[in-house]
Design goal:
Length: 127
């Protein structure tokens, strides 16, 4: 059974940092793009970041550029999202995802092109 499990969320103050992890099991994702999305209450799911299989190519949503960094450890089948300078508007459930096979070597930005999702992890930024 293919599974993505996120961890590392929590409640932090504005300006703090968090590091999310996404551990994959059931198959290797080392040759596939991996992505992070988030969804705040009452809002649509938003693209946060994506990384290609080698880690050499990354893309970020405009709202997180310069503050968040995506990385991966293929030996551990794990993807990370380092979040710095957190803001209240970063509050959301964060999801790790793998794209459909046809887009595995691309870096899709649309959630519709991802078909394997984790259960999500809550990140709350509040003073």
């Amino acid at each position: 059974q293919v599974q993505l499990v996120e961890s590392g969320g929590g409640l932090v103050h504005p300006g703090d940092s968090l590091r999310l992890s996404c551990a994959a099991s059931g198959r290797s994702f080392s040759s596939e793009t991996m992505g992070w999305f988030r969804q705040a209450p009452g809002k649509e799911r938003e693209f946060v970041a994506a990384i290609n299989w080698s880690g050499r190519d990354t893309h970020y949503g405009n709202s997180v550029k310069g503050r968040f960094t995506i990385s991966r450890d293929n030996a551990k089948n794990t993807v990370f999202l380092q979040m710095n300078s957190l803001r209240p508007e970063d509050t959301a459930i964060y999801y790790c995802a793998a794209p459909q096979k046809a887009f595995a070597v691309a870096i899709p930005l649309s959630s519709e092109l991802y078909d394997v999702w984790g259960q999500g992890v809550q990140v709350t930024v509040s003073s």
